[in-house]
Amino acid sequence: MSDLVIAGYNIAKGERKKFFIETAPFYDFTTANIPVEVIRGKKDGPVLFVSAAIHGDEINGVKIIINLLKNKRLKSLKGTLIVVPILNTFGFNTKSRYLPDRRDLNRCFPGNEGGSMASQLAYLFTKEIVSKCTHGIDIHTGAIHRTNLPQIRACLKDPQTKKLAGIFGAPVVINSDLRDGSLREMARELNIPILLYEAGEALRFHKQATHIGVRGILHVMEAIGMLHCKNGVCEYPNVYYAKSSHWLRSSNSGILHTKYKVGDSVKAGDILGYTTDPFGDNSHSIIATHSGIIVGQSMIPLLNRGEAVFHVATFEDINNINEMADSLETENITS
Q1: What is the pTM of this model?
Q2: Which residue, 11, 142, 256, 329, has fewest beta-carbon neighbours within 10 Å?
Q3: What does the pLDDT profile of the chain (335 residues) look like in tens digits?
């Protein structure tokens, strides 16, 4: 491959370049351009994009990319790494998940050059970044006031995607069907294997989730031939493939008192928490319906009836639950 051209910027082999892709300004004409850094090795190889903050308030991915870019191993890169630490600069600037028109950017791909602001931004990212790549990793967190155990979500029907999902090394892998208008669906249509890394909470940095994220990206780069394994040996942690996942909801409105947290193992019938009135009376339990691991949790203790509280992943082999709980405790993921 000769010079790589992104939004008019030329990046030659062996070159590392930072630049901004021009987008529409805010109505006060403040710029809101997309930051990009490209690192090209001296030899051709895979082209991997790593993106974060497609939802503007999911900022932990920004920290992951900051730490990734400081890694000395990138000096021996084969192929090309394209990082976009903040895709939705509009939402990032306002600490919001959405764009100014309340559209979800991750439901607007592949976009339209003459469409809404979100559609135009999706089109620009597709045209200038994704279409020039062979692989992708998109980084997310839980939504506002929800936290997620570090996990990979991917379409496991694709063998290559499933292999990379395991190699990434997040403690749990959850099969996630493609959604209309999502970045993952668009990448799949372009035959680009893509992983979605979920970890932590919106508007917060999470130290251990950041560590696992950086490590996982480097693992994927090793697996696809962009980096050499340390000492010539590739070693990856055990991961657990969930057969399904489900949310447990509050059957009553009230104040939540929890007994379990993200990363804990649960058994069917366990009382995970309960709601009360402001006097501590009228208790109503939230009971696990299946054995599994808590992979997501609401962080707001004030509930209306029907609100989601605990996200539980289940597994084919019941032994996986205890093994995974032990490994989480060892790595202290939830700290």
Answers
A1: 0.94
A2: 329
A3: 578 999 999 999 999 999 999 998 888 888 889 999 999 999 999 999 999 999 999 999 999 999 999 999 999 999 999 999 999 999 999 999 999 889 999 999 999 999 999 999 999 999 999 999 999 999 999 999 999 999 999 999 999 999 999 999 999 999 998 999 999 999 999 999 999 999 999 999 999 999 999 999 999 999 999 999 877 778 888 888 998 999 999 999 999 999 999 999 999 999 999 999 999 999 999 999 999 999 999 999 999 999 999 999 999 876 767 776 666 666 665 44
How far apart are the C-alpha atoms of 92 and 95, rounded to whole Å?
A: 5
β-bridge pairing 292-298 and 146-154: antiparallel
Residue 244, beta-bridge partner list = 314
Residue that the structure tokens 């339209």 belong to: 112
Q: Count the neighbouring beta carbons within 10 Å of the beta carbon of residue 70.
A: 9
- Cβ atoms 89, 105 nearer than 8 A: no
Asked whether the beta carbons of 181 and 106 are under 8 A apart, the reply is yes
- Show the domains of the chain with their CATH numbers: 4-240 (3.40.630.10), 243-331 (2.40.50.100)
- Measured CA to CA, the distance from residue 325 to residue 214 in angstroms comes to 22
Cβ within 8 Å of residue 321, ≥6 positions away: 265, 291, 292, 293, 315
Cα dihedral 259→265→269→271 (10° resolution)? 0
Neighbouring residues of 68: CB distance < 8 A, sequence distance ≥ 6: 50, 74, 83, 214, 217, 218
Cα–chain-centroid distance for residue 109? 17
Tokens of 180: 């209309």
